[in-house]
Amino acid sequence: xxxxxxxxxxAHVPVFDALRDAGHPExxxxxxxxxxxxxxxxxxxxxxxxxxxxxxxxxAVAEGAxxxxxTCSTIGGVAESLGPALGVPVLRVDRPMxxxxxxxxxxxxxxxxxxxxxxxxxxxxxxxxxxxxxxEVRTVLVEGAWERFEAGExxxxxxxxxxxxxxxxxxxxxxLAQASMAGAVTRTVTRIPVLSSPRPGLAAAAAAAAAxxxxxxx
Length: 218
Known about the structure:
single chain, alpha/beta, four-stranded parallel beta sheet, globular
């Protein structure tokens, strides 16, 4: 069944295509790329783009999408909240990652966009409450990294993220808050577990799409 992916960067398309090919070859992906959503959400807050997100996702559902995955952590909560109105599962890519992180006591969140931190911290708090745990969360904003990403300097971007990750010493788990940061996992030398969102996020969305497909045929 078709799964729509809402991205705020075209750089995510090959990443999720590769994950689909490796783990979910039967899954049909439809990529929706709206770069301006992240800029506007960063300037005015995620709720400022809620109407546009709803319109884009409603169109995707009308055109056959049976589930939606938002790969942007900044607007993921906004997208997720639209699921009941749209009538299909709408998932945020970072929820499975946050659920795993919330099992630990000391979490360090690394981000390259400041606007990503509030929704990520809120998600971690939600998952910690759900698990009945108290979690100590620290944050690291990697200065200068996002400018490299926007310039297409992905290697330099990931190297800065990896360096920031390796500098963390007092955590039980490290969370890479944005999907764009996932490639840094293989560049780090830290012994602390490092979590990224694309693989578990796509797996959760694939399961949701499959469940809808089974329900439709029952």
